[in-house]
């Protein structure tokens, strides 16, 4: 598929963007660690917000501009430490950082389009949180993941939110309490990633997944993603009551009428997003 460049890939651009049809690719470009500085988080959030309002975007891929070593090393510890000299010992800046991080992660979860993490390298601390916040995650067989805050006296409490919603509790606690790095196969076993592959196939496999999802009704995907995360926080009875109402409203949508009709008539559906 032809790559459509949306913006100039200037060397100092924190988030590079590319389009392949309905698939938007966001590449973190803050070497060497792709640290989640204030500027990086603001840039990412701006791109996700823009994607939310762009009907031509069906799926978003989040990757590193320079793959192979670090996907994302989490918060910029040097940036955080620099504010300890302030009168409040950095409290205001720490609060701003954590608030913005929470907003970014929730923006990904609430985005009405699926987000796929394409990981080639190490995803650590808030970088691991970023992976866990995405709807799908694909990685190379040399990738690794960790929440090592405990090693430096700073428990990964905010990464814990996303991590504990993706993997079993004891496995999440294992990562959080030991701070040790897990390899790609362990991450898949834990439920943190969907697929593992050699580096040379990562881009094309992720793009293929994105194109498959992008071929579905955008309205149906939006409804399904929102319902998935909402019902996950409910009791069993409330989840069934809520999703039953979602199904009814979904059935009344034009795309559902078209999709069911196309299935019965054995033809390809034509989605309108309504």
From TrEMBL:
<dbReference type="InterPro" id="IPR052377">
    <property type="entry name" value="Mitochondrial_ECH-domain"/>
</dbReference>
<dbReference type="GO" id="GO:0016836">
    <property type="term" value="F:hydro-lyase activity"/>
</dbReference>
<comment type="function">
    <text>May play a role in fatty acid biosynthesis and insulin sensitivity.</text>
</comment>
<keyword id="KW-0276">Fatty acid metabolism</keyword>
<dbReference type="Pfam" id="PF00378">
    <property type="entry name" value="ECH_1"/>
</dbReference>
<dbReference type="InterPro" id="IPR014748">
    <property type="entry name" value="Enoyl-CoA_hydra_C"/>
</dbReference>
<dbReference type="GO" id="GO:0006631">
    <property type="term" value="P:fatty acid metabolic process"/>
</dbReference>
<keyword id="KW-0443">Lipid metabolism</keyword>
<comment type="similarity">
    <text>Belongs to the enoyl-CoA hydratase/isomerase family.</text>
</comment>
<dbReference type="InterPro" id="IPR001753">
    <property type="entry name" value="Enoyl-CoA_hydra/iso"/>
</dbReference>
<dbReference type="InterPro" id="IPR029045">
    <property type="entry name" value="ClpP/crotonase-like_dom_sf"/>
</dbReference>
<keyword id="KW-0809">Transit peptide</keyword>
<protein>
    <recommendedName>
        <fullName>Enoyl-CoA hydratase domain-containing protein 3, mitochondrial</fullName>
    </recommendedName>
</protein>
């Amino acid at each position: 598929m032809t790559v459509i460049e949306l913006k100039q890939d200037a060397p100092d651009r924190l988030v590079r963007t590319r389009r392949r049809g309905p698939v938007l690719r966001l590449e973190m470009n803050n070497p060497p660690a792709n640290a989640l500085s204030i500027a990086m988080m603001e840039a990412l959030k701006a791109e996700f917000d823009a994607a939310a309002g762009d009907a031509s975007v069906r799926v978003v891929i989040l990757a590193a501009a320079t793959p192979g070593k670090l996907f994302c090393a989490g918060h910029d510890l040097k940036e955080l430490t620099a504010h300890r000299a302030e009168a409040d010992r950095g409290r205001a800046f720490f609060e701003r950082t954590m608030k913005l991080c929470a907003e970014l992660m929730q923006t990904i979860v609430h985005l009405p389009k699926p987000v796929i993490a394409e990981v080639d390298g190490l995803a650590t601390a808030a970088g691991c949180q970023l992976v866990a916040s995405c709807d799908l995650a694909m990685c190379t067989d040399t990738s690794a993941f960790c929440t090592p805050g405990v090693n430096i006296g700073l428990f990964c409490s905010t990464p814990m939110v996303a991590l504990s919603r993706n993997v079993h509790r004891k496995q999440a606690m294992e990562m959080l309490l030991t701070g040790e790095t897990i390899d790609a196969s362990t991450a898949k076993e834990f439920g943190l990633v969907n697929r593992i592959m050699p580096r040379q196939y990562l881009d094309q496999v992720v793009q293929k997944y994105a194109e498959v999802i992008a071929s579905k009704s955008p309205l149906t995907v939006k409804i399904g993603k929102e319902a998935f995360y909402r019902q996950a926080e409910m009791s069993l009875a409330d989840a069934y009551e809520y999703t039953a109402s979602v199904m009814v409203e979904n059935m009344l949508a034009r795309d559902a009428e078209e999709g069911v009709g196309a299935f019965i008539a054995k033809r390809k559906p034509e989605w309108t997003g309504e």
